[in-house]
């Protein structure tokens, strides 16, 4: 029997729920479809928020051949077959071919290099899907030929709408439980409903909980748990709970998490949470990242543990991070405010005559902020 997720998958943007910033009226993916604009792009976001569905809708609306591969299991030979099919399709019917590559971050550099010339020449249009930051995981030449769209976790209201779309009867308590459990992941919720309905023929909080514990229901370790555990890991380091931080590190390693992903989170944490309390934390975190790259698993787990204990034990100071957030708020609120004349660059006589750089003092006490916000305090 066809899975519930497949049966209710939207066929058009009008049926699609969520990602209004991309699929809503006047937004990029909808505009691209309306204008029949063919281009390669990467969809970056958490699991179960519509990446595959958006790719299929886009391909269907542009009347393109759609090929779906997972970078976890596919190799060069699989990509080569798609390319050969694409060449034939172009020659015979001038029909474009779209390759949807799920978990594109799992393709190594050589595999991505192999894709590049075919994307570059338009033989295939690439739609990459990833839960990881593509600027770290996708080679620069390929990334530069793709637009990157960021997808967001589905809101509670969107999750309720998707649950209702399944058409499977359940009470409000069951819906509330599903929304809380799925944490913005529609696929997780739909799979839970489908499995519960198949097992018990009745979806209630009790049957949902039983299904969750049932050995026949297997959750993807790279799905919901991926985000739950990394959240617990960061929060444990932030609260200086060394034991919990090491435990969640071990959970991630055991689940097969990419050690570079863990190390990158530690580099960010060193600046965001330790900050000025111990500026050398950033050096330690960077050295851990470097060690992970050089050593690899399983031994690099020791380097990660070393760094985790250091960061969790360190004093915390978020003032630099908070200062950035406050400054960003003013940038968004006021836009491009005029830079004071005395600190403007003055490489020409005309600019000097206009007062650029005039009165600048290297070590004065005056504010160099734009006039409108000159009394603002970001770092305190």
UniProtKB/TrEMBL annotation:
Query: What CDD domains would the database entry show?
Result: AAA (cd00009), HLD_clamp_RarA (cd18139)
What are the top taxonomic ranks of the organism? Bacteria, Katanobacteria
GO MF terms here are: ATP binding; ATP hydrolysis activity; DNA binding; enzyme activator activity; single-stranded DNA helicase activity
Query: Is the keyword DNA-binding assigned to this protein?
Result: no
The name this protein goes by in its record: AAA family ATPase
Q: Which GO BP annotation is one of this protein's?
A: DNA synthesis involved in DNA repair
Query: What does this protein's UniProt record list under function?
Result: DNA-dependent ATPase that plays important roles in cellular responses to stalled DNA replication processes.
The family line of this record is: Belongs to the AAA ATPase family. RarA/MGS1/WRNIP1 subfamily.
User: What Gene3D superfamilies would the database entry show?
Assistant: 1.10.8.60, 1.20.272.10, DNA polymerase III clamp loader subunits, C-terminal domain (1.10.3710.10), P-loop containing nucleotide triphosphate hydrolases (3.40.50.300)
Q: What keywords would UniProt list here?
A: ATP-binding, DNA replication, Nucleotide-binding
AAA+ ATPase domain boundaries: 37-154
């Amino acid at each position: 029997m066809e899975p519930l997720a497949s049966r209710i998958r939207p066929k058009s943007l009008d049926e699609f729920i969520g990602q209004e910033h991309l699929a809503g009226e006047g937004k990029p993916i909808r505009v691209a479809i309306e204008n029949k604009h063919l281009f390669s792009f990467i969809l970056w976001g958490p699991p179960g928020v519509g990446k595959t569905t958006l790719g299929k809708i886009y391909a269907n609306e542009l009347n393109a051949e759609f090929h779906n591969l997972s970078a976890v299991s596919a190799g060069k030979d699989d990509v080569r077959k798609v390319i050969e099919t694409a060449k034939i399709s172009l020659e015979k019917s001038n029909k474009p071919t779209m390759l949807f590559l799920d978990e594109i971050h799992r393709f190594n550099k050589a595999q991505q290099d192999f894709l590049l010339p075919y994307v570059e020449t338009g033989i295939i249009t690439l739609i990459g899907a990833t839960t990881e930051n593509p600027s770290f995981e996708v080679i620069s030449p390929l990334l530069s030929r793709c637009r990157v769209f960021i997808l967001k976790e589905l809101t509670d209201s969107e999750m309720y709408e998707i649950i209702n779309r399944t058409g499977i009867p359940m009470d409000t308590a069951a819906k509330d439980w599903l929304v809380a459990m799925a944490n913005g992941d529609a696929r997780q919720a739909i799979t839970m409903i489908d499995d519960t309905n198949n097992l018990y023929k009745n979806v209630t909080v009790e049957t949902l909980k039983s299904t969750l514990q049932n050995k026949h229901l297997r959750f993807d370790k790279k799905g919901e748990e991926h985000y739950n555990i990394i959240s617990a890991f960061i929060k444990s380091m932030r609260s200086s709970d060394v034991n919990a931080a090491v435990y969640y590190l071990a959970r991630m390693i055991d689940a097969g998490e990419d050690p570079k992903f863990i190390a990158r989170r530690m580099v960010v944490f060193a600046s965001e949470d330790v900050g000025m309390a111990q500026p050398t934390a950033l050096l330690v975190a960077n050295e851990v990242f470097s060690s992970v790259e050089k050593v690899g698993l399983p031994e690099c787990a020791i380097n990660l543990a070393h760094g985790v204990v250091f960061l969790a034990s360190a004093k915390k100071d978020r003032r630099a991070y908070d200062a950035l957030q406050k400054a960003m708020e003013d940038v968004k609120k006021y836009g491009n405010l005029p830079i004071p004349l005395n600190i403007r660059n003055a490489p020409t006589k005309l600019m000097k005559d206009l007062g650029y750089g005039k009165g600048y003092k290297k070590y004065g006490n005056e504010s160099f902020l734009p006039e409108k916000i000159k009394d603002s305090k970001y770092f305190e």
